[in-house]
Design goal:
This protein has a six-stranded antiparallel β-sheet with strand order 1-2-3-4-6-5. By secondary structure, it is α+β, with helices and mostly antiparallel strands. The radius of gyration is 15 Å and the shape is globular. Strand 2 and strand 3 form a beta hairpin. The two termini are 13 Å apart.
Length: 152
């Protein structure tokens, strides 16, 4: 994902007074896993002919793809990014992002990641707590979905 695009999205969305936790994102996924799986099915089938490396953004207000837009609304997500690499569909939803000065923290829900950086409970907790370090991990959820965390 383009870092500049992410920063612009965070600025546009404004500051949130509610700090989202990783547990909230994970619970939201599991509470809505059937809908997330339907979103993946619809998104990937709609863009089977997408060129490798091309990224398409669909928003919850999109009129051209109403089924995908409706799923996003039901999930209370603003947009989804659809990508194809080596013929494989992958998806990314920015669940929550916050930034101040030189630090940005973002929670994602990703589908069908290539080469995920898997979360390691023993070594990653300290890195997550140190908000000044650049850090990234992916935690498998189910059916090809991952909870991903990034700070930079």
């Amino acid at each position: 994902m383009n870092k500049m695009l992410l920063l612009i999205l965070l600025i546009i969305s404004g500051c949130s007074h509610h700090n989202v936790t990783d547990d909230e994102v994970i619970k939201h996924y599991y509470d809505n896993s059937v809908l997330y799986n339907e979103l993946a099915k619809q998104s990937c089938s709609q863009f089977e002919d997408l060129a490798s490396g091309e990224i398409v953004e669909i928003t919850s207000n999109d009129k051209k793809y109403p089924i995908i837009a409706n799923n996003l609304k039901q999930l209370e997500r603003d947009s989804i990014y659809i990508d194809r690499r080596d013929g494989e569909c992958s998806l990314q939803l920015i669940y929550f992002g916050e930034g101040a000065f030189n630090a940005v923290n973002v929670f994602y829900l990703n589908f069908n990641l290539k080469n995920p950086k898997l979360y390691d409970d023993k070594t990653d907790k300290a890195s997550v707590r140190d908000k000044m370090k650049r850090y990234y991990f992916d935690m498998p959820l189910s059916n090809g979905w991952y909870f991903s965390y990034e700070t930079y």
